[in-house]
């Protein structure tokens, strides 16, 4: 392990994992001085986040219940915008496609990230080279990724030569199912690197002793991974899952540049619709309603993960 | 929402303070199958980028007629144009300034908040943490239009500062949680010693905690930097002057009404990605070990 | 208890935010005429004077020429990507800012007028407008709203048949003169040459279906129909609309294009022609220059009026870039001075050299224009526009119209849905 030449750990490995370290009780001092200091330390972050996030989301909520004309806010229309989404088959179809996109991407990206992190954690020749290469898509923006992949997948002049697979011509972006699959794949390509890094970091925190103990017990490599490593990194995997879910639900640029929602609206996601209503059609009220719906999905999924994790922990 | 829940969930790096002992790797070295996996993953990762490099070396006329991975008549013309006859270097500088500024401000705010919430119990802590957690769930698309009007009102529209403020607010939640987890993994005994010596809270933070938190700060900085660097929506909404434009938006110059300038676009992509790759090569070990909180303290 | 605390905290934060915002509120306009000094005006356009693109360079030359020609007005350029400029101008104008001089693409003009980003030109332009109108091959009804001319065209584009002469020669075909021949030749090109697509129409949802709509509109006109009526209501769901989709379905059924067209944007079509995978297309004249620049293309790419029937070719929509005065401009007179300079015969010639098709008829007869290598070809395009061109459909919600239509096109042509039903659904989606 090239890890470090640092001093040995000051804290002994915990006997039962995974438990976050308890805050040392002695620091929980409740003197007047220290109860003001932490507030003062935290205040700037809270103030900035409130100004830049909370105020605008209230503004968006307000927009979503009003008639709008370009940037002017008109009459109160109540839930009319929401009804035009949640009360129609098209609205629910769009929500369904967003679900497919998010779940499909997660199902591929998470195992890929865990698997790659596992591979990159093992001592190997050229490990640094592999790490840099494999994590490279991290620094590519969504626009560039979409343009490059569109070209690569082009059946006529695309360099991957996918023109005909097994004698059958394949137009990936012309087929509703394949287009969604391709969109998910490009999304995975863009988003697995950060997930891999976070999981890799978590893997390096797994105490070697646990592994050795399992090895002595004669467990197979896969069982060792499942019964020793995975529980140790589960909290990180959950957090990564939350991060990715939020990222996927809210993704606009990639979809807009890669498929634009087509073909046959097969990749028309809620996030894309929110963008188009606000920025292409200038229906700010309806666009705001779509983005509030997105927000609700984010919160529901976020809280669900937290609950799962909590349940997991409390066992 | 109890604090323990949020703390457990959102601290990706809060790990028990155990670490590997040098020289005692827990894994066997990679076998042939592992190498197959590594090579396949590398190919998947870099294939589109190789195509970008290949295209960037083709002349305008050859971009579509020469379909080979290795250009038949390689030329550096696109690079010359991008580097010396375009605004791309300016955009790069803008991106470095804005991403750098955002990261610096983010780290300061997030570190203060992380320290306060990791080391002190106080009224309003849970509510504040919850508020910050919730804001990371707000879709960017929901707040772009309101932010635009807010920025115009405050005079921050079309300024570096405006972008830095928005990016900072965007990144503070993630970074605060990362650093909080990191700080929680640092034993408080040192600080206790400092207190016994009579040092004030602020001095303890600056002189004792900050140096220990460096690896975590470095890793969180890179994560935030990359996020800001890659963003398109905020950058394109908050600024419209050409000389303040960021790289992600500036690349759109090559997507014109008259067609896509593939050669120059891909050359510009390569030019803008190279600094990031360099950063990554230099920082790779630190990013991983910094995120892996418990493993690197000492 | 906890939620209560959170809410209170949020309320306090919000109050703080508002308190911070109000005193800082200062909405200055971007410009203004200083008494006795030089008036600083800002031009917002999709062209980039800093780029090495020929049109960008021409823009730079014209702006510098204007600034040097007089001392009252100085114009600076803000370049914004064509896909973003409209939203940005509308937002900026509504917050009291925005450009003094504004470039608007003709299909977006109605939206801009509706959103109030432009001011009428008559007050400052006076009789000059009539001169420009008489000389314009761009129909001025396309820039006139409620009797007011809102902007001046400075570029035109038409949609014509692009064909690869080398490929037609290869199958021994001559240029099609009717739509039936077009279907036949396109199908033969696929069967007898290496191309994938005989005649491409881009059906992609990207770019809001622009490439499809650019074909659907003239096809509908040719069949005697209209897309929108005088009141702006959709009327395309009729026999003419069905016939327009029928022409596309014929091409599809004959194999002139296959599923690949579903993911094609205008960019993809042009690239396909340049790469030799598409033999023919109906595309905008503004892209011809770029497409010919590819290796091995050159004069192999020829352009002619698209065929319809024995009585004449397909009509074309005439669209183009126009220049107007921003609603918040403090110096409309200065802005007009610039527009006059920008639309002059001299400036138009500079743009023509950069490959822009001039909107002023008299430009085509100047010596400088005659010196251009493809002057005769460009004059041919002018004739076609003058005889068979109609101002592009205008709608305040053109983008929504466009995406509704492309959905109908995809379903009717590729999924065999009843064309009338598809068009009716599109009309109600747009009208609703």
TrEMBL record, chain B:
Q: Which domain of life is it from?
A: Bacteria
Organism of this sequence: Cellulomonas iranensis
Classification lineage:
Bacteria, Bacillati, Actinomycetota, Actinomycetes, Micrococcales
Recorded family membership: Belongs to the binding-protein-dependent transport system permease family.
Q: Which UniProt keywords apply?
A: Cell membrane, Membrane, Transmembrane, Transmembrane helix, Transport
Transport listed as a keyword:
yes
Q: Which InterPro entries match?
A: BP-dep_ABC_trans_perm, MetI-like, MetI-like_sf
Name of the protein in its database record: ABC-type glycerol-3-phosphate transport system permease component
UniProt domain ABC transmembrane type-1: residue ranges: 92-283
User: Cellular location of this protein?
Assistant: Cell membrane
Listed Pfam families: BPD_transp_1
Q: How does it sit in the membrane?
A: Multi-pass membrane protein
**Which PROSITE patterns does the UniProt entry name for this protein?**
ABC_TM1
Stretches that traverse the bilayer? 33-53, 91-115, 127-149, 161-183, 204-229, 262-282
UniProtKB/TrEMBL annotation, chain C:
Q: What is this protein called?
A: Multiple sugar transport system substrate-binding protein
- The signal peptide here is 1-25
Coiled coil located at which positions? none
Keyword terms, alphabetized: Signal, Sugar transport, Transport
Q: Enumerate the SUPFAM superfamilies for this protein.
A: Periplasmic binding protein-like II
Q: What InterPro entries does this protein map onto? A: Bact_solute-bd_prot1, SBP
